[in-house]
């Protein structure tokens, strides 16, 4: 399908899942706004590279997603937002009684609060345009839990709840709001962890992936950023116009257990 003429803002999109989604939206013809908290030459070069590859307009706008004012300013600076992908996120693993307060605050701010601020700022633009798509990147941890990930699980459950609320508030408008819930995704960050995990468990690559990293993912295969991007593009399509307020799991069967 074509998203030509639409502008997509993807938070946390200079690498990993966010970049994968941004690429697929650009491939479908959408103009794209990339974002992260850095403001490096390579960030702007990445935008230029995508623009050249897909023949669409791509900009990079720096904004710290831990700060509500900057989240809202990102939308304002973009000037138009037909598609909003709330992807920015961080993680920390610790028992709850030892969980650093500053880590809790940062995870809730970036993984949950940022989506509130960007959505609140983008909805008036979507209403003025008469069309909008909000895609929140939740997680399998938005539907189930794991030990030692209290802040992440709380934030992702919150994202799923907010998704339903926004969908109900926009149900009689040409605007939808849905959440994608990935399991483990093969990103450059995860790829870089494989050698250390192999050494720790004294296992080969395939064995450590299946038995350790993907222990809870029944397919024993990583999801890919391209698959997540394709799911986001589908949710922006006319075929998905009556899909709103729901979660789509891309988790190899994790949440079927």
In short:
It comes from Ruegeria marina. By secondary structure, the protein is α/β, with parallel strands linked by helices.
Notable characteristics:
2 domains; 257 residues; 7-stranded parallel beta sheet; 14% strand; Rossmann fold; 8 helices
If you had to describe this structure to a student in words, what would you say it looks like?
This protein is of the alpha/beta class and 257 residues long. The protein has two domains: 7-184 and 224-256, Rossmann fold (3-Layer(aba) Sandwich), CATH 3.40.50.720; 186-222. It is 47% helix and 14% strand. The chain has eight helices and seven strands, in the order E-H-E-H-E-H-E-H-E-H-E-H-H-H-E. Helix 4 packs parallel to helix 5 (150-169) and helix 6 (188-201) packs across helix 7. The radius of gyration is 18 Å and the shape is globular. The model has no long low-confidence stretch (mean pLDDT 98).
Average pLDDT: 98
Oligomer: single chain
CATH class of the largest domain: Alpha Beta
Whole-angstrom Rg: 18 Å
CATH homologous superfamily identity of the largest domain: NAD(P)-binding Rossmann-like Domain
Order of helices and strands: EHEHEHEHEHEHHHE
How large is the count of helical segments? Answer: 8
Number of strands: 7
Q: Uncertain runs with pLDDT below 50, 5 residues or more?
A: none
Largest sheet: 7 strands, parallel
**Proportion in helices:** 40-55%
Strand content: 5-15%
